[in-house]
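User: I'm preparing a small set of examples for a lab meeting where we compare how different chains pack in three dimensions. I only have the primary sequence for this one, and I'd like the structure in token form so I can line it up with the others. Please keep the answer compact; I'll paste it straight into my notes.
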Amino acid sequence: AAGRIVGELLHGQVVSASGPPETATDRSGAVQLKLDSGHWAVLHSGDPSQPSLRPAVRVDAAFACAGPDGLQVSQFFAADSPVVGEIQPGQIVQGTVACEDEHGAARLQLDSGRWISASTAASRLLLRAERADTDFLCVAEGGAALRGTLALEAPAVGRLHVGHIARGAWTCSNGDGVVWLKLASGEWAVAQDGEGRHLRAAERSAAHWVCVASESLTIRRGFELCSAAVGELQPGDIVQGEALCKNDSGTVRLKLGGGRWTSVCSGTRTFLREGVPAEGPYLCVATRGAALRAGASEQSAHAGEIRLGQVAHGLFLFTNEKGHRWLKVENGKWIVMHTGNESSSCMRQAAYTQEQYLCVCPDGAATRVGFPAESAIAGSLRCGQQVRGRLMCRDARGSMQLRLSDKSWVSMSEQGRDLLHLARFIDQSFLCVKGCALREDFPLDGARVGDLAPEQLVRASCLCTDQHGGSHVQLADSRHWVTVHERDAAKPYLRAVERVDRDYVCVSPGVVHAQVGFALTSPVVGEILPGQVVRGSLLYDDGQGCVRLRLNTGRWATVRRGSDSRVFL
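Assistant: Understood. Below is the structure token output for the 569-residue chain.
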């Protein structure tokens, strides 16, 4: 006790003394306790019934206030210390340390450092709470009452009806078999009691499911397997679910629309399998065609064939327990697309197209009579030739194949080279900003038939890119081709311009120069005075924020300058 004082322990302060307590009695008879810090503090002054330090337990857990009248929050550990707040019935608090006071009542320190009573000699005032951040489904036929706190005596403030799904937040048990659930909306409900479970953890699911049972599958009115049957699913039928929930026997139940229920699986038996809608065309790519079946299993009756190159409209896809991929088509029949190896699929997803395509390969491209690239050659496309597509589908190597309007097939690319590009129809004016060649056919190998001079205006009807990233347009009048830009788009030959036919007023405080050409450095041949109105015919943006206007006189003037964003017209 004569040791040097190194600090103070405040009332309610928690300290650590781990392991078997190390104590010593000083000359005055006081019992000292060695702390983990290495310092000593008085455990009691000789009378163990009047301790200075009490054993405490770190809890770091959430608790629900079960007291019917709430709980007072004390400033310090002692129950008679000043009241600084209140915990409402049903409120969740975070506790850090628990300790019994001199009356044997449990006290709990909150994460704020304040204290509350956790229990009295007669009742528990706090119940340990666990996170339950998931959906819960009401399976009680009579529904479940919602209360403001976790007490059956509390008045009901609402009701969860059977089949209703609500988001949970916390669960806790009062120790007599009643499990309470606090909803994310703040109300409490009995999730389980001596009569059974009323609320079950569920998973919202808007997925589609296909019936893979060998015989009809019962649809029932309620969650329980003993509820009344209200319908059946036949093998191959497709339904959309709302929620999944497991019963006590391990059967996974699926909630359907209208509050009806059916089973997904039970033990080793599977009745429904999740799939995805697959609306769109599918192309048969198997040389021997593909078999159609009445149901979604190998045991289903044979219902026809689909031939190589034939297109079927798909509806639904799923994978069975063996890894086999099944496709349901619009006539209600089923096709095994593949048995685990997707590259050997007999049906491939396709897409309809009405677009125009341009052959961009200097060597042209071969057309074939069938879908496989190994089928017989039907003809060829020359570089620059335009064709119209009807159907697109990737082959086993991932190469996109295009069926043309004459029903022949052509590869969009081959051995890393692009053969065909999408040709986009446009109605766009371009201004030549750098002299370039006019070509009779697509620019890569077309004969030169003339030149475009700077400031020449042209109208294009078709735009296409080459395999190097260059962009080219076909002129509307002559059908000749001209390059917009080569690989580097920042160095164009042509720039898109907007045709205008409107008046502009000079808002500059000084005169605006009228120039011979679109370039800012072109010779000045006139002036536009402040307030003067001029007629414009063409707008040109240089891509750097500078906008130029061609007047109806053929001269050029600056509308806006990029360097300082000043507006002149």
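A couple of notes for your slides: The longest strand covers residues 272-284. The mean pLDDT is 89.

User: Perfect, thanks.
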